[in-house]
Amino acid sequence: MRIAELTSPEIRPSHHDSLSQLLSQLEASINQCELLSPEKPLPTNLSSDLRSTLSQLSSLVPFSNSIKLQIWKLSYRLWNACVDLSNIAGVRSSGDKVGEEVVKLRQVSADMLLLAGNVAGVPSPALKSASFYYKTGLIWHELRRFDLAASCFEKATDLTSKLDAATISDAGERKLLLDLNIARSRTAWDVSDRNLAVTLLNRAKNLLFGSAEHYKALANQYLVFGKSALSKIEGCGVKEALKLMNEALDLFEKGLSTARTRNGTEDLKALRSKCLRFIAAVHLQGEEFESVLKCIRVLREGDGDRHPCLPVLAMKAWLGLGRYGEAEKELRGMVVNKGVPEGIWVSAIEAYFEAAGTAGAETAKGLFLGLLGRCHVSAGAAVRIAHRVVGEGGSGEGARARAKVVAELVSDERVVALFAGEAAAKDRTPMHAVLWNWYMF
């Protein structure tokens, strides 16, 4: 060997010296982070400098327990500095560059814990490290950086997958395992990887630990996915939505059997009823009218549900079955339910008249006038009903019958009063147009 190839111990820094130097660099950068303010532009090189130092540190593993503990303490200092910055800055937005820089620093903090690994004397180190990745992933998701969110959630999953969930007794740690699966599932859904999203939710059923809150959280996510599936244009959207909502319903019901407090029980009952209402709406969209009525029967008789949407769903189901008398009963029930918003009952009357035709004109008029006596009704609602009953005019016995009903409707003094004053000026013109078109026919 030539002399030039020999390494001088005086020139080459020792492992300990390199480690000390890198830890000092790391601490100096974190000191700088602790002095940051959202009022001033954040240095864009901070996260990259920290990451570069961390990369050099990784070449010096394994670490002694004291070095690991030092890295953990530095990580927590960096994390707390990020929390303070976020709290001062307030609400983040997708275009907030300050928010993006801070979340990059959070991710460095999580990477520091991962690099350090387990530390003697620190309880549940893997879960603490996973929680940093989980919280960072949530913010990336909020900023719609789904690729970065997914990466964080996957790292957290790798850390927790080595643990035996059955041995975890802490409630917060158990909730983290469930929340991590749900968050990862939500990100997969938002990038249209729906098979993975549902698979992750199904896996999360093993992380319920008999907790009513866990059942509630998982069921809610199934319900959210079900509602989202309904908006799909493809024909399979209704079928997929129904499957997801039935999963949610099953979890709500199982959660009820584990609830230990009155508030917990009431919350789950309310959510189960909400889920059943959505299932009824899905059945209605699929023209499964008998199934709609079964859901409503369970809601009314079992849960005592009096939600304003129920008579509308029931009425449309009866109309679908051609049972106009039953549909009319539901409509008349709406007249005494003050919780039904104007737009809902006007749409219900329109739907009834559309299905029943001229034979339903008298009923539509009577219901509308009945509503005038029990709540505030706008002039715009009167225009909608009159227009629906008149239709496109025409001739014959049916047209004359509809015209007679409209004449009686608009001449009622309570309806006339709706169009008095400047506030109703914008509605007088369309009503005049409806009546003029009817007169011309």
From TrEMBL:
Top-rank lineage group of the source organism: Eukaryota
Keyword Transmembrane carried by entry: no
Gene Ontology process terms (BP): meiotic cell cycle; regulation of synaptonemal complex assembly
SUPFAM superfamilies to which the protein is assigned, alphabetical: TPR-like
InterPro entries linked to this entry: Spo22/ZIP4 (IPR039057), Spo22/ZIP4/TEX11 (IPR013940), TPR-like_helical_dom_sf (IPR011990), TPR_rpt (IPR019734)
Pfam families found in the cross-reference section: SPO22
Alphabetical keyword list: Meiosis, TPR repeat
Segments passing through the bilayer: none
TPR repeats: 130-163
Record has DNA damage as a keyword: no
Stretches of the chain forming a coiled coil according to its record: none
Listed PANTHER family: SPORULATION-SPECIFIC PROTEIN 22 (PTHR40375:SF2)
Protein name per the record: Protein ZIP4 homolog
Species of origin: Vitis vinifera
